[in-house]
Design goal:
The protein is α/β, with parallel strands linked by helices. It has helices at 46-53, 93-103, 109-121, 137-150, 167-183, 195-201, 223-226, 230-234, 237-256; strands at 4-14, 19-30, 35-39, 61-66, 69-70, 78-81, 155-159, 187-191, 204-209, 214-220.
C-alpha cells in the first residue's frame, strides 16, 4: 500500500462570473520517507494541490488517501509550512512551538521537552524566551519548522518555505531541512519555483503544466545526487545536466501558454 495516494484530483474555482480549473485529473503515489517536489509555471495549481492534501479546500473531483484512509478534514498527521513563518509576535518562541501541541491536546511535559530538544538540534538553543522580532528571518523559519514537527506529523507540506530568504540563508536552511527530515524519516512535498532547490532536495520532481494544472513529466533524481546533501549535490556534474533538462521543459511550457 502506497503511503500517500492522490487519485484523479481535479479542482475548479467558481465565481459568479467565471469558472477556472486549477487542477485536472492529477494522480500520483508517494512512498513513506520520500521527498518529492512540485515544479511548474505560476498558476499551475501546485499550492492548490497542497491545500487539498491539507484538507484546507475540498477537490471538485478525486480523493486523497493517507495510509489508505481518506483525508477529508484537517488532520494533525499533515503538517504545513508556508513561505511566511506566521509566528505570533506576542508569544515567545517557546510558546509558538508549543501551540500545535496545545491545540490538539498533547501538550504534555514529555512532548514539550521533545520540541525544545528539536529547537536545540537545529541551532536555536537559548532563544526559547525570545520573541519573533528578536530573530532573523532564517531563525524564524527554523522555529516554524520546529512548530510543525512538534506534533509529529506523518507528512510535511512545504510551500516555498525558503523563497523570502537571502540566498546564503536559503542554502543553509535547505541543508538543515533536508537533514532533519532524513533523520526523522519524514515524508515531504515541496512546492517551489526553484529548479535547483527541487533537484537537491528531492527523490522525484513532478513537473506541472498550467491552466489547467496537470502532471506532464516526472523526473527521478539520480542516486548519486540523492545520496548527497543539498550543498554537495549542487557541485556534482549531474546537477547541471539535470538542471538544463528541466529548464528546457519549463521554458517550452511557458512558450506554449
Amino acid at each position: 500500500m502506497k503511503f500517500l495516494v492522490i487519485d484523479h484530483v481535479s479542482h475548479t474555482y467558481f465565481t459568479r462570473q467565471s469558472a477556472v480549473t486549477a487542477l485536472e485529473d492529477v494522480s500520483l503515489a508517494i512512498e513513506e520517507g520520500e521527498f518529492v517536489s512540485f515544479l511548474g509555471p505560476s498558476g499551475c495549481g501546485k499550492t492548490t494541490l497542497l491545500s487539498i492534501i491539507a484538507a484546507l479546500i475540498k477537490p471538485t473531483e478525486g480523493t486523497i488517501l493517507l495510509e489508505g484512509n481518506k483525508i477529508d478534514s484537517m488532520n494533525p498527521s499533515v503538517g504545513y509550512m508556508l513561505q511566511q513563518d506566521y509566528l505570533f509576535p506576542w508569544k515567545t518562541i517557546e510558546e509558538n512551538i508549543f501551540l500545535g501541541l496545545k491545540i490538539i491536546g498533547i501538550d504534555t511535559n514529555e512532548a514539550k521537552q521533545k520540541a525544545l530538544n528539536l529547537l536545540s538540534e537545529i541551532g536555536l538553543k537559548g532563544v526559547e524566551k525570545h520573541y519573533p522580532h528578536q530573530l532573523s528571518g532564517g531563525m524564524r523559519q527554523r522555529a516554524a519548522l520546529v512548530r510543525t514537527l512538534a506534533v509529529n506529523p506523518k507528512i510535511l507540506l512545504l510551500d516555498e518555505p525558503f523563497s523570502a530568504l537571502d540566498y546564503q540563508t536559503k542554502l543553509k536552511l535547505e541543508e538543515l531541512v533536508w537533514k532533519t527530515l532524513k533523520d526523522y524519516n519524514k515524508t515531504a512535498l515541496l512546492v517551489t519555483h526553484d529548479i535547483g532547490e527541487a533537484i537537491v532536495m528531492s527523490d522525484r520532481i513532478f513537473l506541472f503544466d498550467a491552466r489547467p494544472g496537470r502532471i506532464v513529466h516526472t523526473f527521478i533524481i539520480p542516486e548519486e545526487l540523492r545520496s548527497l546533501s543539498p550543498f554537495a549535490a549542487r557541485q556534482h556534474p549531474r546537477f547541471s545536466e539535470l538542471f538544463q533538462s528541466i529548464w528546457k521543459e519549463l521554458d517550452q511550457l511557458e512558450k506554449n501558454r
